[in-house]
C-alpha cells in the first residue's frame, strides 16, 4: 500500500470515528451495540418495546395474518379491536411464540428477534399473556396462587425456600390490594366469581414482573361493575407496564386505551385515538356497525 493510500485511509477512519461520536447510537446496523445492554435484557432505548412488521400466517391456505404491522411504545396501553376472525388472537400467538409466521419480523425491544425463540423462553424474557379463560389453581387459595406465580419467576425462585422473604410478602400484599382481592386471600380460587378469577390471573402475571403484558378479552363475561374495576386496574398499570389488550367491549376500550388498533382480515385497518377510530366509516362498516 502506498503512503498516499495509507494517509487517505487513516483520514477516512478518523472521520468515521468522529461521525460515530457525534451521532451516538442512532441509526445503522451498529446502533444496538452503541449503548450498553445486559445480555438478554430488553433494549427499549429507542422507546419501542414491540415491533411487528409484515407478519403473515396461513392455516391451510387461509390467511389469518396478512402483512400485520404493529409498533408498541414502552409504557403504552394499546387496545386491539376487530371483528371475529380478524386475527387478534393469532397476533398474540405469534408474539408469544405459540405460532411461527410464514414470514415477517417480530422484535422485543430493538435487539431480541422473537421468531428465534420458543414460547417458554419468550415468557421468561418478560412477555406475560393472559388467555381468555382464567387459568388459576382452583383448589389453592388466592394467596397460594400468587405465591406460586412468584416462585415461577426464575429471578426470585432461588431465594424461595419454604418461606417468602419480607419484601416478597409485601409485594404479594400490594398485589392483592391492586387486584381487589385482599378480603379473599385465604379463599380457594375455585370459590371466586369469574371476574375475581380474571383479576387473580392478572395478579399472578404481575407477580412475575412482565415488561409486556398481553391480555385477550379480559372482561368477557364480567359484570358491569367488574368491567369498571378492571378498567381502573389496567389504568393503574399503564406506564409501569406495557399492555396490549384485545377486547370487543367498546365502553371498556374507550375507558382504558390511549391508542386503538383496528385489525381486519389479518392486517391493520386503522390506528388512532378511540374517538377518531370509532368515527372512521371503514371501522363502522367492518366492525362497530355489525
Ligand atoms: N390453529 C388454527 N387452525 C386453523 N385456522 C385457525 C387457527 N387459528 C385461527 N384460525 C383461523 O384464523 C382466523 C383468525 O382467528 P383469530 O382467532 O386470530 O381471530 P380473532 O380476531 O381472535 O377472533 P375473535 O374475536 O373471534 O376471538 C379465523 O378465521 C380462525 O378460524
Ligand atoms: Mg380471539
Helices, strands, pairings?
Elements: H1 3-23, E1 48-59, E2 62-73, E3 77-81, H2 88-95, E4 103-108, E5 112-113, H3 119-124, E6 127-130, H4 142-152, H5 154-157, H6 166-178, H7 194-207, E7 212-216, H8 224-237, E8 242-246, H9 250-256, E9 259-264, E10 267-272, H10 274-279, H11 281-288
Parallel strand pairs: 3-8, 3-9, 6-7, 7-8
Antiparallel strand pairs: 1-2, 1-4, 4-5, 9-10
Helix pairs in contact: 4-7, 6-7, 8-9
Structural descriptors:
alpha/beta, Rossmann fold, six-stranded mixed beta sheet, four-stranded antiparallel beta sheet, 10 strands, 39% helix, binds adenosine-5'-triphosphate, binds magnesium ion
Structure commentary:
Helix 4 packs parallel to helix 7 (194-207) and helix 6 (166-178) packs antiparallel against helix 7 (194-207). The protein contains 11 helices and 10 strands. A hairpin with a 2-residue loop joins strand 9 (259-264) and strand 10. The model is unreliable at 16-34 (pLDDT under 50). It is 39% helix and 22% strand. The radius of gyration is 22 Å and the shape is globular. A 6-stranded mixed beta sheet has the order 6-7-8-3-9-10, sandwiched between helices. A 4-stranded antiparallel beta sheet has the order 2-1-4-5, covered by helices on one side. With 290 residues, it is α/β, with parallel strands linked by helices. The chain has a single domain, classed as Rossmann fold. Bound molecules: adenosine-5'-triphosphate and magnesium ion. Residues 59, 64, 82, 84-90 line the site of adenosine-5'-triphosphate (ATP). It holds the Pfam family BCA_ABC_TP_C. InterPro entries: AAA+_ATPase, ABC_AA/LPS_Transport, ABC_transporter-like_ATP-bd, ABC_transptr_urea_ATP-bd_UrtD, BCA_ABC_TP_C, P-loop_NTPase. This is Sulfate/thiosulfate import ATP-binding protein CysA. Keywords: ATP-binding, Cell membrane, Membrane, Nucleotide-binding, Transport.
Amino acid at each position: 500500500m502506498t503512503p498516499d493510500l495509507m494517509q487517505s485511509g487513516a483520514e477516512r477512519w478518523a472521520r468515521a470515528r468522529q461521525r460515530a461520536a457525534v451521532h451516538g447510537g442512532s441509526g445503522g446496523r451498529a446502533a444496538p451495540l452503541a449503548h450498553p445492554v445486559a445480555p438478554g435484557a430488553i433494549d427499549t432505548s429507542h422507546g419501542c418495546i414491540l415491533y411487528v412488521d409484515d407478519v403473515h400466517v396461513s392455516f391451510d391456505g387461509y390467511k389469518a395474518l396478512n402483512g400485520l404491522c404493529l409498533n408498541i411504545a414502552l409504557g403504552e396501553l394499546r387496545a386491539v379491536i376487530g371483528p371475529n376472525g380478524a386475527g387478534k388472537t393469532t397476533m398474540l400467538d405469534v408474539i408469544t411464540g405459540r405460532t411461527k409466521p410464514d414470514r415477517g419480523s417480530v422484535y422485543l425491544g430493538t435487539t431480541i428477534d422473537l421468531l428465534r425463540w420458543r414460547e417458554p423462553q419468550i415468557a421468561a424474557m418478560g412477555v406475560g399473556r393472559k388467555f381468555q379463560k382464567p387459568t388459576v389453581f382452583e383448589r389453592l387459595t388466592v394467596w397460594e396462587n400468587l405465591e406460586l406465580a412468584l416462585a415461577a419467576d426464575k429471578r426470585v425462585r432461588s431465594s424461595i425456600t419454604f418461606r417468602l422473604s419480607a419484601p416478597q410478602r409485601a409485594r404479594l400484599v400490594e398485589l392483592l390490594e391492586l387486584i381487589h382481592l385482599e378480603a379473599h386471600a385465604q379463599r380457594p380460587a375455585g370459590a371466586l366469581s369469574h371476574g375475581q378469577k380474571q383479576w387473580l390471573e392478572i395478579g399472578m402475571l404481575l407477580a412475575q414482573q412482565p415488561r409486556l403484558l398481553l391480555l385477550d378479552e379480559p372482561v368477557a363475561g364480567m359484570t358491569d361493575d367488574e368491567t369498571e374495576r378492571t378498567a381502573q386496574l389496567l389504568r393503574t398499570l399503564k406506564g409501569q407496564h406495557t399492555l396490549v389488550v384485545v377486547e370487543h367491549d367498546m365502553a371498556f376500550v374507550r375507558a382504558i386505551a390511549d391508542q386503538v388498533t383496528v385489525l381486519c382480515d389479518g392486517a391493520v385497518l386503522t390506528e388512532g385515538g378511540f374517538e377518531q377510530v370509532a368515527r372512521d366509516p371503514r371501522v363502522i362498516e367492518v366492525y362497530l356497525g355489525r
